[in-house]
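hey so u asked for the seq, here:
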Amino acid sequence: MRSMTGYGRATAELEGHTLTVQVSSVNRRSLDLTVALPESWSSLEAAVGELVRGAASRGKVHVDVEVTGDPAAETAAWDDEAAGAALDRLQAFALRESVEFRPSAELLWSILSSQRRARRLPSPEVAEPVVREALGEALRGFAAMRAREGEALLVDFIQRAENLHRQLEVIAARAPQVPVLYRGQLHRRLREAGLELDLEDERVLREIALFADRCDVAEELTRLRSHFEQFAGLLRAEGEVGRRAEFLLQEIGREVNTIGSKANDLTISRAVLELKNELERVREQMANVE
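ran it, structure tokens below
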């Protein structure tokens, strides 16, 4: 089991530049991939997407590829000739407009920065193997974090599955007693109403039989046990389990709702309420599972 929350980072050297690759993700029903690359490397997006899809099938995943250089390289990138020409144009403009022209350090810095030569990056063909290697390392860290988060979720799911089983057994133990209890309640109400009907009277027996049929939850309990077994199997399954588990939880919720609508018993109603609360917690956590 893997979480959809993950982060991985890796760096590499590329012709005097430092390449930094970061991969991060949060939960999302499907795979939503965004990639940030230097503009001149946009052709590498397809290769990046292919590698990411091999490591993640769900989640909002963002890949950031950043290239930086050392301060000396940045300084050398200034275009002195272009900066000087810009300064001359400013001076000529000031003379035409009869404005005193006194360059300051701030003005020189602004002109130099604006005329800085764009840093030339290696071609996409040269960069691709380095990007692939760094991305692969980042994805390994990303996958490791998702696995660790998934293990924590698995422990929580196992505990909650046990809680669901306990409430199921409460209902299973109580359900056969409900028609018997109703029979006694019906007899008591008849006596209190002054109606001395024999409990073997056909009308009484028919009423009890109808009640027993309406509150029978044997089929729902059988399906719930089957769903719980499938859920336990999914928790240990490899690969993507989130979608299948979400569907199964919907089916479990449907059976629980049916039991709740049939239950004419306080003990069963309380167990159904506990089941619903626990199911909602499981659904919330399952939204984070790949």
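The beta strands are 6-14, 17-26, 31-36, 59-68. Confidence is low (pLDDT under 50) at residues 71-76.
lmk if thats what u needed
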